[in-house]
Amino acid sequence: MRIQKDISLKPYTTFGIDAKARSFVEVDSVEALRQVLLDPAFVSTEKLILGGGSNILLTKDFEGLVIRMAIMGVSIAAEDELYTYVRAGAGVVWHELVTESLEMELSGLENLSLIPGSVGASPMQNIGAYGVEIKDVFHCLEAVDQQTGELRIFSHQECQFGYRESVFKHELKNQYVITAVTFKLSRKPQYQISYGDIQKTLEAMGVTDLTTKAISEAVISIRRSKLPDPAELGNAGSFFKNPEIPAQQYEDLKNRFPNIPGYLTTPGQIKVPAGWLIEQAGWKGYREGNVGVHAKQALVLVNYGGAAGEEIKTLSKKIQASVWEKYGIPLSAEVNFI
After folding, report:
1. Burial of 220 (C-beta count, 10 Å sphere; 0-12/13-18/19+)
2. Which of 53, 151, 207, 301 has its CA 20 to 30 A from that of 254?
């Protein structure tokens, strides 16, 4: 384990922002993580835990210590008649875990195919796509206390999952480092194909025998048709959350904008697609210098090359102000600003 100094974080984030870390280290075990966290030289140093770097926007150099999680390994933790419990290290690439679950003929992760990032970040954000969220397949996670180095196991309830939320983004923010996650995957497929274009894509693919692999392939096809590859165009996927508004506000907006889509979530609350709001406000395909809004998906802000994080942040603030002015709906960033 080697502490590096003044390292560019450009290769470690999907936005490809050339910001530097004063100190940088990769850890491949719980013991290595403990060693770094309890090192007297870094105990009082601000820390940034980095996985796949797919959900952060670096707006400046980071003056503290960046710890990149490289704890690997996928294994079966337990099995029963209905489920297989699959444990994965925090550093495992998310889509590689999805692929392994399909090879084991397990159901639950197929709708989450091709989401960028690592396993460790997945419960923090309660990542989701096409009608499935982490909370639907989550069993437990292991995390190390940053102050004491003690390992703690968190149950589903203790994680307090919400829409792109968990306890690790609020009460326990910056207090724990997730080292492994265990997922509860079904041995009897439970297909979810009603969301988005999955059904239509399966039909176009000529699928008559529904399988988890077919659903995964459909999701991959949809994502590739709409979302830019971070390896080719810097981005962090969906930049904003889909806002939820009171039903009465939605009805008032419906009178003014008859085509506004909305989906009932909890009683009295309607979720409105952020991408639709941004597109209708005229931002889809917009470009300003090195930053812009993707031409095929208005939820995605992109770095065309050489952009500074502040430029992307400024663009996001303009979009938020524009949507608020037109619809009176606040947009919250899904991406974390550093």
Report:
1. middle
2. 301
Helix (H) or strand (E) holding 214: helix 212-226
Tell me the C-alpha to C-alpha distance, in Å, between residue 85 and each of 10, 99, 158. 35, 15, 18
DSSP state of 136: G
Residues of the chain short of pLDDT 70, as ranges, are 196
Pairing type for strands 20-27 and 62-69 reads: parallel
Angle 212-226/94-103 helices, nearest 10 degrees?
150
Both tokens assigned to 326: 């037109």
Return d(Cα 335, Cα 55) in angstroms, integer. 5
The verdict on residue 226 lying in a domain is no
Q: In the prediction, which pLDDT does 73 show? A: 95
What secondary structure letter does DSSP report for 241?
P
Inside any domain, residue 192: no
Nearest C-alpha neighbor of 189 from the set 161, 207, 209, 218: 209
Task: At 74, give phi and psi (nearest 5°).
Answer: -130, 130
288 and 311 in a common domain: yes
CA dist., res. 261 & res. 316, Å (int): 22
Tell me if 319 is assigned to some domain. yes
Strand order through the sheet with 287-288: 234-238, 300-303, 291-293, 287-288
- Give dist(CA 15, CA 25) in Å, integer: 20
Active site residues: 164, 238, 334
pLDDT digits (tens, 9 = 90+) for 66-103: 999 999 999 999 999 899 999 999 999 999 999 999 99
CATH number of the domain where residue 78 is located: 3.30.465.10
Look at residues 27, 44, 69 and tell me which one is the last residue of a structural domain. Answer: 69
Q: Which domain holds residue 81?
A: 74-186
In a domain, 221, yes or no: no
Please give the structure tokens belonging to residue 248: 């009465």
| Residue ending a domain, choose from 154, 186, 218 | 186
Based on the structure, what is the number of domains in the chain? 3
